[in-house]
Every structure is written in C-alpha cells, then in structure tokens.
Amino acid sequence: MSKEPLIDQLDQAISEILADPEFMPASVDPSLTEMLRVARDLRDVPRSDFKANLKADLERKAMMSTTATVQFREGFRTVTAYLLSEPLYVDFLKNVFGAIETERTETGPGRFHAEYRIDDSMLMLGVGSGLNMPTSIELYVPNVDEVFKRALDAGCKELMPVQDAHWEPVRFGCVEDPAGNTWSIATQLGKNYIPEGRNAISAGFVAKGAAQLIDFMKRAFNAQEIQKYEWPDGLYASIRIGESVVGVSEASNHEWMRPTPSMIYMYVEDCDALYAQALRAGAKSISEPKDQFYGDRHGAVKDEWGNQWYIATPIKEPTTNKIAEFRPNFRTLTPYLLPSMPEYVDFLKNVFDAEQTFRGDTGPGSFHAEFKIGNSMVMVGVGSSDR
Amino acid sequence: MARTDDERQLIEAAQKDPRRFGELYERNFERVYAFVVRRVRDRHEAEDVTAEVFQHALANLSKFEWRGVPFAVWLYRIAANAIADRWKKLSKQSADPICDDLDQSHRPDIERRAILFQLVDNLPDDQRSVVIKRFVEEKSVREIAQEFARSEGAIKQLQYRALETLRALAGGSHE
Fold first, then answer.
1. What is the mean pLDDT of chain A?
2. What is the pTM of this model?
3. Does A44 contact B34 at a Cβ distance shorter than 8 Å?
4. Which of the four CATH numbers 1.20.1560.10, 1.10.10.10, 1.10.260.40, 3.40.50.300 does domain B122-175 have?
5. How many CB atoms lie within 10 A of CB A375?
6. CA of B171, closest CA in chain A: separation in Å?
7. Under an 8 Å CB criterion, which residues of A touch B?
8. What is the DSSP string of A184-207?
9. N or C: which end of chain A has fewer CB within 10 A?
10. What value of ipTM does the predicted structure carry?
C-alpha cells in the first residue's frame, strides 16, 4: 500500500481514471476505494451552464408557444426602449447607428413619435416634448471601433474607451450621446458579433440595488435571469423578459454606471393582467390600461427605481391609419388615367386582365371607372376633356 | 404515491401552460443526462441529445398520456429513439441497439448517477468549482491552482473533501 498522503493518492488515481476510464488502482488506501467509484461517475457530470442555458432555451420556447397567437407589431419584441429627444437627435441616430425610420406620427406642433430600426431591433423616440430622461442602451455592432469613432465625431462624450473585456470575448466601449443617453457599444469577437440569445439593441438598467430591481422584474414581468456576473459591490445580469433580453447593472461611482431610469414600451399578451401584476409587485400606476388611438391598449407603471413601463397589447388597426377606413383594395395612391377612347377599357381588360369594379356615367359620353389589376387599383376617366 | 400524484399534477399543469415545463425539467434533467451520456461518444453529443429530448418533450407534451408510469420513462424512450436515429444516420447500426437499456434493471444505475450530479450542485462553491474544473474541464491540479491562485495542496484538499462529501451523501449507492 502506498505511503503517500491520501490527498496525493486520490489525485494520482483520479488522473489515471481521467486518462483511462477502465482504470481501477489496486494499491490505493482502502478508504479511497468508494471515492474513486464516485470519481469515475464524475467524469460524466454535466456542465452547470449547459443545464441553465438549456432551461432558458426551453423557457423561451414555452413562452413563445403561449404568445404565438398575439400579433405584436412587425419588428417589435417584448421590450423596446423609448428615448426622449429633440429633432436633431434623429440625424444622430441615422448617421451614427444607421437607424432607419419606420414610423412617424405628429403629436403636436414640432412634436412627433417616431420608430427606428437598428439592425434587428427597434427603438422608439418621442421628439420635441421638452422632457428629458437620459437612459442606457446596450448595442451590438459588427465593428465597435468604427461605430465608436462615428459616435465621438458626432459629438458623443467618451465615458470608457473601446477595450477588450476580460470576462468574455467582447470588445466594448461606452459613450454619452448629445441627449445624455449612455450607449454601451460592443462587438462579440468570433463568428457572430451579437451573442446567442441577444439582439442588436437591449434596454439597459443601471440601478442602486440592482438585485432588488431584478427581483422586481421577476415578480412584475415574469423575468428570468439568464446570466449574471458578480463582483464586490457590483453585478451585471442579462434578464429575459418575454422575447427580449435587457441588461441590469449595479450603479457605481463610474460615470458610465450612474443610475439611469429607463422608459420602456412592452408588447405583451394581456396588458391588463401584467399591469395588475406589476402593481402587486410594488409598482405605482402612471395610467390605467385603456385603448389608444394608435391601435394599442396600454397602461403604465413606475417602479421604485424610476423606470417607466408602458405595458401594451395591440388591439386593432390604428384609428389614425386612414387606409384601414378606405374602400377595399385601395391604397394611399391610385393612378388616374384619362384615355382619349372608350376602347381603352377593353385594352386594360385584354392585356392586363383588369377587372372592372365600378363604372358610373359622368355626363354624355363620359364615365368614371375603376379596375382591379392584380392586387392594385387603377381609376379611369373616359370622355373627359381634361387631359 | 404522493410523489406520483405530484408528478401527474405537474404534467397536467405543463400541458395547460407550457411555461410550467421548467419544473418537470428540473426534476428530470440529471436523469436524462445520465441516461444519455453513457450511450454516446462524448460530452458534446450528450448535450445535443439531452437538448433534443427536452425540446421534443416540450413540443409533444400535449400527446403524453398519464398511465401511472414515471415521466422519466417517457423521456428515456425519447432519448433512446434520438440516439438510435443518430446511429442510423452514422450507419453504425441498422437496428435499434438500446431497447434493452430501457429495461428497468438499468434504472438504479441512472438514478445513482443522477443523484450524484445533483449533489455536485449542492457542494460548497469552492469544492464544486474544483470538481467542475477537474472532471468537466479535465484540468490538472496544477492548472486549477494557478487559476484560483491557491497552492496545489489546497486544491487537492478541496478535491478530497468534495469526493468525501459526495461519497457520504450518496450513501450506499456507490457501494
């Protein structure tokens, strides 16, 4: 029997078991025999992050299966950050981040609500209200150095220069934009610049008492913690809310880690139920759920960290979208043709399979007619002298 | 019997609301992984098959009919089919080679290792970290000592305590 200390005998035997699963040493201390049987089974112990990641994936699939019947607006996931700004900020978003405007609705003189797509994500913007609520955004881009430079050139203030993170394969930097919003701009190194499970844009929350904020999100919005880094006096966590992931950080004395309450627009299956759940979790009501003229029903709450949550469910076509009230088949623009001969109608029918949907006399020898060609309409005025 | 009734309630709850599936997952993850890992080539494939099993189970939960048999047996059947499909694709075997593995005589072995895997999660943090580094990442004591800025002796001591704890908590299952 070996005279080596037991911890050395055990380690030597484990090394041999790892190299050869069939190995069973004959000369170890008998007290180690049972421990080596355990060691043999430990070769198959699963990775703890595999178990957690698979659970998160299953929960996401389960969540999606329960919300599949809800028609959220195209391009929108559960959580969308809402920024307040002045008109010039629109150019900043377009020039620095390549934002594409997908919606703009006038809300008053010099005021409008607008929506922007950046990569695979959406941002909402309230312009011209005179209100200011600087928030925090996390953005993944293909080349952080290029975007970071564009941001500085556009007047952003550097809060943290671009650098490689030591805790994961990510290169990132941080700026404050002209409206006071904090942008953490990052590129994941490797095949995909956006980490698996994330999207280009995530709303960021920097709060004193981040752990308590996370707990609130779990109770109020069924949030799930999918990743967490902790260090003395700090933490950063990725939190899934519905189909979105948000970042939550503990506030600190760093300039880029100061508390930044966010304004969030959420699309959920049942805004009334989630509004009530948020109140039970300790949020204060800003407004009770009610139908909005733009087609959403929403209520709003404020949490104790100052974050404002607009909880919405799409209910119908927006009442401001007059197209929905137009005649069937018509869109915004319809060509109006003024042919010189009545036979032009036959030409449309024979050549383009035009289907006449309306005809009305407008005078002796003149008439107005409407034709459907494919999925579009054409209007025709025959016999008119106005050409 | 209480556990059986409890499991039936969990299944019915998850059939009504798939978001409740997480509880069934937590109860059965180690069992499925223990079943799969000894029947495939490596850890990577074990993870792929395990993921496939639970994704299939979630997607087909509505078809599951309670007949008093543990839920894990249904999961083992899904796993056995998934492994058999892989083998067929690789032309390793033409027939289902692991039907016999579903024999009840194998279940104590699966349960024993599933319990052990759960016990690892309950170890004190420093012991669990050493076990994961040593057995999952297959790092040497010297490498772990460097990573944790500890002496090799300290890491060996933690490794010894961890295995002693696991042996004691696993009771007679490893005898």
1. 85
2. 0.50
3. yes
4. 1.10.10.10
5. 7
6. 10
7. 6-8, 10-11, 14-15, 18, 34-35, 37-39, 41-48, 50-51, 54-55, 57-59, 61-63, 65-66, 222
8. EEEEESSS-SS-TT--SEEEEEEE
9. C
10. 0.88
